[in-house]
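Whiteboard transcription, Tuesday session. T.W. wrote the structure tokens on the left side:
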């Protein structure tokens, strides 16, 4: 090969490389634009469903944590916020749904994977009632996340309402809170349960409730039956006993957890119990967020990764 053609080939190689890099960048940008446009399109559709009088229940994919958004007519309930997230996932999700006011902000229990974005949400949105479990003094957290939540509440002159057994209207839905009465050594067992009923459809959101608390609600005879169950404690083996699942008798179960999380959630046997009970079991780590739309009779379900 002459010196000249060698140089030419070298030049071509350089140009080829640049072309390949350019093509890869274009492809990545196209995928990002596609994903964003699909999620925008979905956000628009869910907003339209609510405007038509339907209720939307969003199990937001927050990785290893929980966050559930309920929008019915002009009323909004947010249950937990996921962990602190550089992407401000829940704040941005709420904005995409045009949420300005959160009428009821329920904190199932004050662990970081449930209150991580709470301070930002409180400072950025108009907040109605904040409901949190009453905890024994020795279990009140001393974490920076909890302190940030307290500071944000103080800045807005907000006060917690201690969770109690109660029922109230939320747009076209009935919202019920079930609070534990027992004494426990684990903060998870102080989780508030929220049941949303819209006509024939019902949803049960269980925080990180473990089997001791499940047993209490079973013994108290609370009506915890639901079509959609947010499985407790990220599908851990601490929760979702067979007796509990028999009583809830869900058609859908949603497990909210992060991919390859350090806790090993969800537990294989727990997933099997859920699969034996529910027709469909969805895991946010694989399926992405899950949104249900209820017209009071029918129930539509859509997974982010469908
Ligand atoms: Zn948790």
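and on the right, the sequence the group agreed on:
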């Amino acid at each position: 090969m002459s010196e000249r053609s060698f140089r030419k080939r070298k030049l071509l190689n350089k140009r080829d490389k640049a072309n390949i890099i350019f093509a890869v960048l274009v492809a990545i940008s196209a995928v990002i634009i596609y994903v964003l446009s699909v999620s925008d399109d979905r956000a628009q559709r869910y907003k339209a469903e609510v405007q038509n009088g339907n209720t939307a229940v969003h199990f937001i994919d927050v990785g290893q944590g929980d966050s559930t958004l309920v929008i019915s007519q002009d009323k909004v309930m947010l249950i937990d916020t996921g962990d602190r997230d550089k992407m401000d996932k829940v704040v941005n999700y709420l904005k995409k749904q045009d949420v300005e006011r959160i009428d009821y902000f329920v904190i199932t229990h004050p662990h970081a994977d449930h209150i991580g974005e709470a301070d930002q949400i409180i400072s950025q949105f108009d907040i109605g009632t904040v409901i949190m479990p009453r905890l024994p003094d020795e279990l009140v957290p001393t974490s920076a996340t909890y302190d940030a939540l307290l500071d944000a509440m103080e800045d807005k002159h907000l006060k917690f309402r201690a969770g109690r057994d109660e029922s109230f209207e939320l747009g076209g839905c009935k919202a019920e809170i079930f609070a534990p009465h027992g004494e426990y050594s684990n903060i998870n067992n102080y989780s508030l349960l929220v049941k949303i009923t819209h006509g024939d459809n019902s949803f049960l959101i269980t925080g990180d409730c473990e089997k001791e608390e499940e047993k209490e609600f079973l013994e108290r005879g609370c009506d915890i039956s639901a079509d959609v169950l947010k499985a407790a404690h990220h599908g851990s083996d601490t929760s979702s006993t067979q007796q509990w699942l028999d009583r809830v008798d869900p058609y859908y179960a949603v497990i909210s957890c992060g991919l390859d999380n350090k806790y090993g959630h969800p537990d294989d046997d727990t997933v099997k119990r859920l699969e034996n009970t529910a027709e469909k079991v969805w895991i946010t780590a694989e399926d992405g967020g899950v949104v249900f739309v209820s017209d009071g009779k029918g129930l539509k379900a859509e997974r982010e990764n469908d």
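Someone added at the bottom: The pocket of zinc ion is lined by residues 66, 111, 113-114, 208, 234 (CB under 6 Å).
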